[in-house]
Recover the amino acids of this structure.
């Protein structure tokens, strides 16, 4: 009967995602973030991009509300394709100078906050946000640098498939993602992902057959 | 309601002959008027001229209902009391209207239907075809049914009944009115019931069973004035509960709730909050807190302070409340009352906003403004920026953005030249086909305003696209918004799009390209009006 739960659309009025200690991640990211996103921690992703959305998508798909702060360029369609539910998404494109307060307030209601800070925040501000995070049990996904992040993900290499010199179109991207961090995540790992795959979703490269022709076309 | 409430109010109808409406009565139209000192009006004057009559009548009663050009109605009860009786009122109106150069007759009766007939009858009752301006037909209160009884059923202006009733032997309204109401309802349905009510001298329908005088607002005075925000918010919760109870007792819900806060200094802040019958008492109290906090932030900003409420956003409200002499009064008034239809949540699949989330979002809105917290709603469009509409949090029906689950953009093939009429430039709907839509995958970065860019070919000349969609040369290098030049390693396009060509101001012609630059990044760029724009970035 495990299939039934996924067959029925889930009610979204549950306040929290089950599994107290961690927020789930997409299956494709389990190799990089085993066990999911630890509550009360910061995950830093090198730059804003689909990888940020992919990190957040697992929790959103599991029923968590997400907020995106300081991201006027947030691509909602790409987020939806990656698995993030736009119905449970708040966008605060311009939080202004008081962004730490905004993030702290949002952590009261959202379990995952995507943040692009205007710059590297001072230590005091970081520690205050970290305290709020621990108290609320949320996860902060930062696009950019964040010194004491639990995990840091970066795109090391990327190759677009499907587009040539004047023909084809962007179809899929193969990226090599590296992760390092503290604690259980201390050991550095790299994985190849389809980010995005041909249908916009995120997959590990061995899941999706590679079209040799397509890969030769990349730059 | 009681039977007394069923009776229509006294209505006075002013009818000017000669307006187009009387043309169907040959011999009267064009006959003109011959008022003492008045103007003879031949033919049908234009409708706008009737506005002069209306403005003359407005001198007696500000609320004039224009029935059609040539006839208007007012409620007679109030003006009649002021001007010394219905007869005196009618005389004064006739004097004013004929003085303005218009012929008129006046009818007064219970209800609009009878009053219109009375006004017409005032003209005819003299037994002459010559219009008798200044004639008044007054039907005494309660005599309306008797007055109507003589009229043929055709005056009901319901063709089916006017045809059917005489064949059943019912020729006058009096005969029709004597039928039992239940039988009429059985036999003739809703139109018959309405006609039957009119024939009996009643209104078209029973009055809405809601006393308009009922004051559902609730208020509390604070003596001594409250120097802190907390007790006011606390009182607001109880007040909101009382207001909701009052509304529920009347079977009503309010669309908005008005929160009025008065300070000892006389300062007053009134604000309307969306309610839709969905807010709990606690949620209304939160709105009050927000209103107080917003006022306090405004004060702080004026005082040159940094305007940031502390970490929890509430500290220090009390000081400012005390400065203005304390809060002396709080009043909650339901606005836009509607019948409470009840709120039924979907059985499943609705993304219901939990209280916890709503509180967090509202608190951020209190800091940044209502429009700063938005929810995306998927919309239709070709470019990535058009496929999403941002709606401020709280403005959507919480169950409206039904995008549950990962939505999948419809897959289209290679986009070709697109010319699709019939669309407006408002947000389209997502489920329509959008030929020429940018194919999946979607870009993660969609610039709210496209970035200017320069794209050149090998020789350094800007790449152009001809009217027939031919690229001048392969794009070789790109500089985004003044950044260093990057070599283009792969490209595809152009995908020409001609949108809204039927509307010159919104029309747009673009030729879109997808590019991959040497750093591995992929871009969605467009050439429009000779300039290159970066619409989105696939990262």
């Amino acid at each position: 009967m495990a299939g039934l739960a996924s067959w029925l659309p889930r009610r979204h009025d549950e306040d929290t995602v089950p599994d107290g200690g961690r927020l789930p991640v997409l299956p494709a990211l389990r190799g990089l973030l085993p066990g999911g996103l630890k509550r009360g921690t910061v995950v830093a992703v090198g730059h804003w991009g689909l990888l940020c959305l992919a990190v957040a998508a697992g929790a959103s798909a599991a029923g968590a509300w997400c907020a995106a702060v300081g991201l006027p360029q947030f691509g909602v369609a790409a987020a939806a394709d990656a698995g993030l539910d736009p119905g449970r998404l708040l966008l605060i494109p311009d939080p202004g100078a008081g962004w730490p307060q905004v993030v702290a307030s949002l952590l009261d209601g959202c379990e995952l906050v995507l943040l692009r800070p205007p710059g590297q925040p001072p230590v005091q501000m970081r520690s205050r946000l970290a305290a709020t995070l621990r108290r609320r049990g949320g996860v902060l996904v930062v696009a950019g640098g964040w010194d004491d992040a639990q995990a840091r993900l970066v795109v090391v290499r990327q190759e677009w498939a499907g587009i040539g010199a004047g023909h084809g179109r962007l179809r899929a991207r193969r990226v090599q993602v590296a992760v390092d961090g503290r604690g259980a995540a201390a050991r550095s790992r790299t994985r190849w992902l389809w980010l995005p795959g041909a249908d916009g979703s995120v997959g590990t490269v061995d899941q999706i057959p590679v079209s040799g022709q397509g890969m030769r076309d990349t730059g | 309601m009681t039977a007394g409430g069923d009776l229509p109010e006294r209505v006075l109808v002013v009818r000017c002959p000669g307006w187009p409406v009387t043309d169907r009565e040959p011999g009267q139209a064009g006959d003109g008027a011959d008022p003492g000192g008045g103007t003879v009006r031949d033919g049908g004057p234009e409708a706008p001229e009737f506005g002069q009559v209306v403005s003359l009548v407005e001198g007696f009663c500000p609320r004039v209902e224009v029935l059609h050009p040539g006839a208007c109605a007012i409620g007679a009860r109030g003006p009649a009391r002021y001007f010394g009786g219905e007869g005196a009122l009618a005389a004064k109106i006739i004097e004013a209207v004929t003085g303005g150069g218009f012929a008129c007759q006046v009818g007064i009766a219970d209800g609009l239907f009878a009053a219109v007939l009375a006004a017409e009858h005032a003209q005819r009752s003299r037994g002459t075809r010559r219009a008798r301006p200044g004639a008044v037909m007054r039907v005494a209160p309660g005599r309306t049914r008797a007055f109507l009884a003589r009229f043929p059923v055709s005056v009901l202006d319901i063709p089916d009944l006017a045809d059917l009733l005489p064949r059943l032997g019912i020729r006058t309204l009096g005969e029709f009115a004597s039928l039992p109401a239940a039988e009429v309802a059985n036999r003739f349905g809703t139109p018959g019931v309405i006609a039957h009510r009119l024939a009996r001298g009643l209104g078209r329908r029973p009055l809405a069973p809601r006393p308009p005088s009922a004051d559902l607002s609730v208020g509390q005075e604070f003596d001594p004035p409250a120097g802190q925000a907390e007790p006011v918010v606390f009182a607001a919760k109880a007040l909101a509960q009382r207001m909701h109870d009052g509304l529920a007792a009347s079977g009503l819900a309010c669309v908005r709730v008005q929160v009025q806060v008065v300070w000892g200094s006389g300062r007053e802040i009134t604000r309307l909050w969306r309610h839709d019958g969905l807010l709990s008492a606690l949620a209304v109290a939160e709105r009050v807190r927000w209103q107080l906090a917003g006022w306090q932030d405004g004060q702080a900003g004026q005082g040159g302070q940094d305007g940031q409420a502390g970490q929890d956003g509430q500290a220090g409200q009390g000081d400012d409340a005390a400065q203005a002499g304390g809060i002396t009064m709080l009043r909650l008034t339901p606005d836009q009352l509607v019948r409470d239809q009840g709120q039924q949540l979907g059985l499943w699949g609705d993304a219901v906003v939990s209280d916890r989330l709503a509180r967090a979002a509202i608190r951020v809105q209190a800091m940044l403004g209502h429009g700063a917290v938005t929810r995306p709603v998927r919309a239709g469009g070709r470019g990535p920026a058009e496929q999403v509409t941002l709606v401020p949090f709280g403005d959507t029906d919480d169950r409206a953005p039904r995008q549950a689950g990962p939505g999948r953009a419809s897959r289209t093939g290679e986009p070709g030249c697109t010319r699709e009429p019939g669309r407006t430039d408002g947000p389209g709907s997502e489920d329509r086909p959008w030929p020429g839509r940018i194919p999946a995958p979607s870009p993660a970065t969609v610039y709210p305003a496209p970035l200017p860019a320069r794209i050149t070919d090998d020789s350094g000349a800007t790449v152009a696209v001809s009217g027939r969609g031919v690229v001048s040369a392969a794009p070789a290098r790109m500089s985004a918004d003044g950044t260093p030049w990057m070599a283009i390693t792969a490209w595809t396009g152009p995908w020409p799009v001609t949108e809204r060509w039927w509307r010159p101001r919104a029309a747009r012609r673009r030729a879109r390209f997808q590019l991959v630059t040497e750093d591995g990044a992929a871009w969605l760029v467009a050439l429009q009006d000779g300039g290159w724009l970066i619409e989105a970035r696939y990262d």
Summary: The helical segments of chain A are 2-7, 50-61, 76-82, 99-109, 123-136, 212-216. Chain A touches chain B through 77 residues (CB under 8 Å). Confidence is low (pLDDT under 50) at residues 1-16, 208-219 of chain A.
